[in-house]
Amino acid sequence: MLAIFQKGLADPPKELNSPAPMQEANPPKKPKLPQEILKDFLSFHNHIHNSFSIGFANNALLAFAPSDRSSHSIHQSRRLFCGLDGIYCMFLGSLSNLCALNKQYGLSKGPNEAMFVIEAYRTLRDRGPYPAHQGADEVVKLFWGIGADGSVVIADNLEVIKASCAKSFAPFPTGCMYHNEKGLMSYEHPMNKMKAMPRIDSEGTMCGATFKVDVYSRISTMPRVGSEANWAIWGHQA
């Protein structure tokens, strides 16, 4: 899976940028532009005939190509793509407790996991904090980084991220979502802020930071009104 969002549409936390000069790598590595990343992603998996990609003007793109690793696992090979009211979701894997989650969120029985994620996101965005992430087994790991033009790159393949973002990458924190206005937030601990943790790779080079819940820093208030509330200003007030 690959997702790329242009700078300005999605602005990542500054700590995701590696402070190390590119010359420190041996051999030196440079981040790549979105179209080059997409081309390399499809070539890497060698399944161009069974892949798809969708672009949103010059603002974003989503792509999927099954890997040899995922072909042996039903949880990783299953892929869904849905869009609703300008929200798009590409889902890999499955939810064994989909019915229970629909009840927990007060949602009608959805047709699939991708539609549930969209509805759950709208619930979190518009109505209030609900614990969406409970007991995840991390079957599908995600990584994110920064491309040559400042784009945010997200993929489930570590090698693709390394080749695309040089040292400006890190594992995407489990149980979190990133909102361009509210920043990185935890589903399980929505009242706590996220803290950047410095990360050094095996070559001794400073890479993009990882993030974890800061148990000592709490958000004082969180609105719990209806969908008409302007949540866009909440992240700046916290």
TrEMBL record:
Coiled coil regions, renumbered to chain: none
Annotated spans, Disordered: 11-31
Domain DUF3700: 2-213
Stored Pfam families: DUF3700
InterPro entries: DUF3700, TSJT1-like
Source species, domain of life: Eukaryota
Name this protein carries in UniProt: Aluminum induced protein with YGL and LRDR motifs
Classification lineage: Eukaryota, Viridiplantae, Streptophyta, Embryophyta, Tracheophyta
